[in-house]
Design brief:
Layout lengths: L6 H12 L28 H14 L2 E2 L2 H8 L8 E2 L15 E2 H14 L3 H13 L17 H13 L14 H7 L24 H11 L25 H17 L17 H15 L5 H10 L1 H7 L1 H14 L11 H6 L7 E4 L8 E3 L2 H5 L17
Antiparallel strand pairs: 1-4, 2-3, 4-5
Helix pairs in contact: 2-4, 2-13, 4-5, 4-6, 6-8, 8-9, 8-10, 9-10, 10-11, 10-13, 12-13
Length: 392
């Protein structure tokens, strides 16, 4: 994870790379928080992000979320189309003091696109994202900030959901892919992506940025990322570097990074050997998108065996990341190492209206129906179900 300077951006870095700040999940949101919000932790830095990923994950498993959850997210949008990390007073108009950001806006764009019925809000969000595109073709976390791989990637994911031709989204003649390719390292440095150039302009490999960039370079994002036909995942330098080649190089880096232990390690100071569960889940998605399910088997198996405690501690965005990792690999999220990820996710917020999953890859059919709906009829229904999020 890339440590950023301001408190808000630091929190966003954790969300993007590791799903959410370490907060304990609870069966229902705290009474002091909006009833439609997933999670019981302080939403100041990740409210829109975790809500968006919860809705994206539910969509991926064919669940219809509670109207309150969708309304909460839609109500966070400002009149200009942008979203902040959290808007405590949605009835009050956004002002210059409220920090809006590209990551929250792009995530919310994908979530509202998934649930449907919010075409106007989605269009406004996409238009705002286009309006703050940097001259190098990319995006920073905040409008006008230096482009970084993670922010550029999550925006590409949002554009992809609207069938917007990403190469044609240009400022100063540069497209989002131009910005990403500038952050791609040569094979001598592993073929990874850097988050941003450092103060001296040097690029340094960043696993979190690489996982995000591989998915974006393949023209997809959290809402649509799935394993396809296995593609080349070996690193090869080329004078005419394309997004597809850069994705292959990045996947090669990730495969090497997880080969020994099965997981990516935390980049936080003093935690060199500590697993980074969120980034590992993101790497599963990236490896599957590039190389097929088998390419992601090692880190996926490690997550199935080791991620349950981490997800409980980190709440809805963590469960969402694991659901996305399962979905991208054709794995049943209702039995992810013995954990029903969808049941755990829905327990952190308002129960979905209905949920059923007909997995085209052959996974079992499952459904989730709120227990309250069953109680009135005296019928008991099983809660069963099937990422990732994609650093605060």
């Amino acid at each position: 994870m890339n440590v950023r300077r301001s408190a808000a951006v630091l929190a966003a870095t954790v969300v993007i790379g590791a799903a959410a700040p370490a907060v304990a999940a609870s069966p229902s949101p705290s009474p002091s928080l909006p009833s439609g919000l997933y999670g019981s932790g302080d939403p100041t830095y990740d409210g829109v992000w975790r809500q968006s990923f919860a809705l994206i994950a539910l969509h991926r498993v064919h669940a219809e979320p509670a109207a309150a959850a969708v309304d909460w997210l839609a109500g966070q949008q400002c009149a200009n189309g942008a979203f902040p990390a959290y808007r405590a007073q949605p009835a009050k108009a956004c002002d210059a003091k409220l920090m809006v950001d590209t990551n929250s806006t792009a995530a919310a764009t994908q979530a509202l696109s998934a649930v449907g019925g919010h075409g106007g809000a989605v269009t406004k969000a996409v238009n705002w994202l286009k309006s703050v595109q940097n001259k190098d073709g990319g995006w920073g976390y905040t409008p006008g900030g230096a482009s970084d791989a993670n922010s550029t990637s999550v925006v590409i994911g949002a554009l992809a959901t609207q069938d917007v031709p990403v190469p044609q989204v240009r400022t100063g003649g540069k497209s989002p892919y131009d910005a990403l390719l500038k952050l791609s390292l040569p094979c001598a440095d592993g073929g990874a992506f850097a988050y941003q150039p450092d103060k001296k302009g040097k690029l340094r490999a960043n696993a979190d940025a690489t996982a995000a960039a591989v998915v974006a370079a393949r023209g997809t994002g959290p809402l649509t990322a799935r394993a396809g036909t296995p593609s080349e995942s070996t690193c090869a330098d080329a004078p005419d570097l394309t997004p597809a080649k850069a994705a292959a190089n990045g996947a090669s880096f990730l495969a090497a990074a997880v080969a020994k232990d099965g997981y990516l390690k935390s980049a936080l100071p003093g935690a060199e050997n500590q697993p980074d569960y969120g980034n590992t889940a993101d790497a599963v998605v990236a490896l599957a998108v590039q190389g097929g399910p088998e390419a992601a088997r090692v880190p996926l198996t490690w997550l199935e065996r080791n991620s349950a405690k981490w997800a409980r501690q980190n709440g809805p965005a963590a469960y969402a990341q694991l659901i996305l990792a399962a979905e991208a690999t054709g794995t049943d999220p209702s039995d992810f190492g013995g954990t029903d990820l969808v049941k755990q996710l829905t327990a952190t917020g308002p129960a979905p209206v209905t949920a059923s999953h007909d997995d085209d890859s052959g996974s079992s059919v499952w459904w989730v129906v709120g227990a309250g709906l069953a109680a009135g009829a005296g019928i008991g229904f099983l809660l069963s179900g099937r990422n990732k999020r994609k650093r605060p």
